[in-house]
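ingest -> validate -> predict -> emit
validate: passed (alphabet ok, no gaps, 348 aa)
predict: started
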Amino acid sequence: MSEMLGIDFMQRALLAAFLVGLAAPLVGVFLVQRRLALIGDGMGHVALAGVAVGVWAGQSPVWTALIGAVIAAVVVELIRSSASANGDVALAIIFYGGIAASVVIIAKSSRGTPASLTAYLFGAITTVTPGDLWVFGVLTVVILAVVAVLRWRLFAVASDEEYAQSAGLPVLALNLALAILTAVTVVVSMRIVGLLLISALMIVPNAAAQLIGRSFRSALAWAVAIGLVCSVGGVVVSYAADTPSGGTIVLLAIGVFLVAAVGSAVRSRLARAAGARHDEAEGHGHEHGPGCGHEAIPHGDHVDYVHDGHRHAPHGAHYDEHSDEDSDEPARAHEHSVGAQLREGGSR
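emit:
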């Protein structure tokens, strides 16, 4: 480990991985909410054309890729919002046109070959330069700032676009902001995990986090934590195992998702088993029923009765002991509508 930290390009690689692991899940959480898990792949195709233009023109591929991806993001969102019957076809043309243009442009360039695109397709984290790191750092700060300011509005639009529109939110502007954030994230990540794998780092940590977190805020925190661990940990593992960093990062994220999925399934099974068991109440001669004089509380498909500080429910020849935690009220108290999320966000 100390040997790795003493190498300049590995220091830059770890810092770049940290930036990507922080930014990608923050944007991906809204894409998961909107069921646009694969939009990052399409943005990557267009960004690749921007990379080819940069190589051909002798300019920084990062900036040309950013310009191309942002333009594509705006066009894609405008097409999507128009609800055109041919919208899917138009998006496919844009995405496939981007990757086709990249191959043609790079072939006509005297400064590169199709092999020059490999580092951007699959990632080449050890080739990150100090200049790239500064650009990635600035773009990551922009992503963090925008998400911090707009997160509740983006959540509202992603969860229920019709409600957000009726609440007076600028839906199109927010969707455009999310599309541009996605484009920026793709460009930040292309040297780390590659344009073909960036969607995985935006989506998989959020998929795992939804199995762990109990609310939007906690799921977002878990997603960022998983993204950071997988990005930085993937670079460390790839250095030790001599494997490609991008693929290692994504495989590690998928491994975390599988662990979370198994843990969630086991937890649900244990909860169902615990719910099937009944704690029998202490015996007493009073028969509960309508008009018995004790408070009646609806509970699922039956009624509980409060007696001497206990909640009893008739069950065959005896009474089961229930607690307030068994009622439906706590669950309802913890449910948050989109409106509640907006009010919470607006009060901050």
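Strands lie at 279-280, 296-299, 302-307, 310-315, 318-322.
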